Amino acid sequence: MKFVKPNIFTFGGIPIIHNYILEKKLIGLITQHLGKRSGNVLYQFSDMILVKIYTCFIGGQCAEYINYINKGLVNMKDYKVSSANTILRLQKQLSYKNELVESTSAKQYKFNANEKLNQLLVSIVLFLDLLKPHESYTLDFDHQLMVCQKVEASHSYKMKKGFFPGFATINSLPVFCENRDGNCNVKTNQFRFFLKRNDKTI
Questions:
Q1: Residue 72 CB contacts under 8 Å (≥ 6 apart), including other chains
Q2: How far is CA 88 from CA 31, 83, 99, in A?
Q3: Cβ distance 49 to 108 under 8 Å?
Q4: How far apart, in Å, are the Cα atoms of 14 and each of 7, 79, 154, 158, 172?
């Protein structure tokens, strides 16, 4: 694992972030949008979201980092230590099937936009009063090549294998994300984001 400054404690800021999430009651908001798992299950979808967020904050690049992060956060209040396998299982339960999208040149590409998680992004920024309903904002929509060697990844115009997800932000706040094939042109069906929302989400 690489760190920008090796003298900084890896988990130093995560308890502060976690306490903020508890204070703002974001766990309840996450459960409201993703649903509560039935029965006497130990882990909820909110537990998965938290550990994924904290793994990103320490530079984690795959699910196995979860096993590492738990060693430093085991005593954190209202934080359930879970294995990477458990998180992957919960993640799969929330997954959406790929959608085939045809370009103007009749080529087909795989798109994947998780509506539940995207709506959660919008709800969080509104809930925290970071954006206000019915206000006028500038929305930015851009793509970023995510280089990887996954079996499903495809070669991009940068001659590297990976995926080419698109992100929509308002005031640098994420409000939408969709994954797409690495060889997909950025212009392909770009207006689908706006057409699906019809200006009613925010």
A1: 10, 11, 14
A2: 18, 9, 21
A3: no
A4: 16, 11, 34, 35, 21
Provide the whole-model pTM: 0.83
Pairing of strands 99-102, 161-163: unpaired
Q: Which strand (E) or helix (H) includes residue 163?
A: strand 161-163
Length of the chain: 202
Q: Which residues contact 21 (CB under 8 A, 6 or more apart)?
A: 27, 50
**Cα separation of 160 and 183, whole Å?**
10
pLDDT digits (tens, 9 = 90+) for 70-120: 777 777 888 888 888 999 999 999 999 999 998 888 899 999 999 999 999
Cα within 13 Å of Cα(168), Cβ side: 20
